[in-house]
């Protein structure tokens, strides 16, 4: 029966080529936009190298100083954490396998053959290379001994190697950044700037910075990373960390101040900032997923309604055919099945075209270099998302027209009318 459905669908599509084109265009455009957006979000939040341990990694991305009053909670300071605060609160946490403190990336200048070269440098500790799993093209990460001794060593990315040394091996060579000389110990693959936590062009030890952790401030320019033994340890880690934060002495800021800092994933951090402005320790990721799902549905509503209207017109034009088939005993279920198959076939074709268009658009964006080191790809997660969206799109836009068709009276259908 399915084979006959497909044959009939092909004949119908070829008979009304303009109608088929309009339907296909609407489906393809909508699905292509959703796939491109999904690919970009996956590029930011997906568990890809070097963040292969993402599922059991928590971060301290934000510290908020709030003042409690009768009117509620008012934001005072909202910033990244200080190294002092992170060292106080992350040491020997139960359920934590490893910890790391990393600085915010910042621009540095180098001069090569009278050319000014701008790079992003990030200060990290030796544990950073154990939590993140970089792909080393040559060399190695700097060691704990090099870190402890304050060695002026650096790991650079492939693009920086090409700028400083050309496309040749450079381990053991030196370069200057902001007037300070560093010796290259390793070269890694480029990390896109959208990967906020590991991104940089140059990674050097904290101990090369004389000002590192020289004050007792609670806010600064650092991120804390915690690699949990398993995801089951997350609640215990969060509870203990928040308890330690609450015990910090913040009297120097204001007696009514409350400090809020939560171990969370980067996505959790974004959700908490959107829904509570960082004034709560709650988890708002579920609300973010719901909001994203609602936005996706709203984005699909208009093209879905257009498809419903077009499908209703198609049914009216085929009313004589429907009337004849019903008069000769064709059950409603068969007619509904035929129409749904036609709609799903058309939507699937649109999904495949959308997949191709999304691939081309993402490749063009990647090649332009507008987003440094971005390499947008369509992986299995994006493909399955596309298949799911196409199926839902095709089914929902065909359900109501199919139901209307099943209710058509054979006599009215033969006259070109509706139920």
Describe the structure.
- This protein is of the alpha+beta class and 419 residues long.
- 48% of the residues lie in helices and 20% in strands.
- The chain is built from 13 helices and 14 strands.
- It has helices at residues 2-15, 17-45, 83-90, 128-131, 144-148, 158-165, 234-246, 266-276, 285-317, 319-327, 332-368, 380-406, 410-414; strands at 57-60, 63-69, 72-81, 96-103, 106-112, 115-124, 136-139, 153-157, 174-177, 180-188, 202-205, 219-220, 222-228, 257-260.
- The strands form 3 sheets. Strands 5, 6, 7, 8, 9, 10 and 11 form a 7-stranded mixed β-sheet that branches. Strands 12-3-2-14 form a 4-stranded antiparallel β-sheet.
- Strand 9 and strand 10 form a beta hairpin.
- 32% of the residues are buried.
Q: What is the succession of H and E elements? A: HHEEEHEEEHEHEHEEEEEHEHHHHHH
Q: Which stretches of 5+ consecutive residues score pLDDT under 50? A: none
Gap between N and C termini, in Å? 26 Å
Number of strands: 14
Shape: elongated
Largest sheet: 7 strands, mixed
Look at the structure and give the mean pLDDT: 85
Bin the strand percentage: 15-25%
* Gyration radius from CA atoms, angstroms: 29 Å
Q: Tell me roughly what share of residues is in helical segments.
A: 40-55%
The number of helical runs is 13
- Structure classification: alpha+beta
In short, what is this structure?
The protein is 48% helix and 20% strand. It is an alpha+beta fold and 419 residues long. The strands form 3 sheets. Strands 5, 6, 7, 8, 9, 10 and 11 form a 7-stranded mixed sheet that branches. It has a 4-stranded antiparallel sheet with strand order 12-3-2-14.
């Amino acid at each position: 029966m399915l084979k006959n459905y497909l044959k009939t669908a092909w004949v119908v599509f070829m008979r009304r080529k303009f109608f088929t084109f309009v339907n296909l265009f609407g489906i393809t455009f909508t699905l292509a936009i959703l796939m491109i957006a999904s690919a970009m979000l996956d590029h930011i939040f997906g568990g890809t190298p070097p963040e292969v341990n993402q599922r059991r990694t928590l971060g301290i991305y934000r510290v908020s100083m709030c003042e409690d009053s009768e009117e509620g909670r008012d934001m005072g300071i909202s910033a990244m954490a200080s190294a002092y605060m992170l060292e106080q609160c992350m040491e020997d946490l139960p359920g934590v396998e490893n910890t790391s403190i990393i600085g915010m990336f910042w621009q540095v200048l180098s001069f090569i053959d009278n050319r000014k070269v701008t790079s992003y440098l990030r200060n990290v500790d030796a544990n950073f290379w154990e939590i993140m799993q970089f792909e080393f093209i040559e060399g190695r990460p700097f060691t704990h001994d090099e870190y402890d001794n304050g060695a002026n060593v650096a790991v650079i990315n492939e693009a920086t190697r090409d700028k400083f040394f050309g496309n040749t091996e450079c381990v053991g060579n030196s370069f200057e950044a902001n007037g300070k000389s560093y010796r290259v110990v390793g070269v890694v693959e480029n990390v896109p700037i959208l990967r906020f936590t590991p991104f940089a062009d140059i990674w050097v030890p904290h101990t090369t910075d004389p000002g590192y952790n020289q004050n007792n401030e609670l806010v600064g320019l650092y991120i804390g990373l915690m690699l949990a033994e398993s995801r089951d340890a997350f609640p215990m880690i969060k509870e203990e960390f928040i308890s330690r934060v609450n015990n910090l002495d913040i009297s120097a800021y204001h007696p009514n101040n409350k400090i809020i800092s939560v171990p969370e994933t980067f996505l959790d951090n974004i959700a908490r900032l959107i829904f509570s402005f960082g004034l709560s320790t709650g988890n708002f990721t579920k609300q973010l997923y719901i909001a994203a799902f609602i936005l996706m549905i709203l984005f699909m509503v208009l093209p879905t309604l257009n498809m419903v209207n077009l499908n209703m017109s198609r049914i009216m034009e085929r009313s004589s055919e429907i009337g004849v088939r019903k008069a000769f005993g064709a059950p409603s279920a068969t007619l509904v099945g035929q129409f749904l198959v036609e709609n799903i076939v058309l939507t699937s074709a649109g999904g495949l075209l959308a997949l191709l268009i999304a691939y081309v658009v993402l490749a063009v964006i990647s090649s332009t270099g507008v987003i440094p080191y971005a390499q947008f790809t369509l992986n299995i997660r994006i493909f399955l998302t596309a298949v799911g969206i196409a199926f839902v799109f095709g089914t929902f836009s065909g359900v109501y027209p199919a139901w209307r068709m099943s209710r058509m009276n054979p006599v009215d259908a033969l006259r070109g009318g509706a139920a």
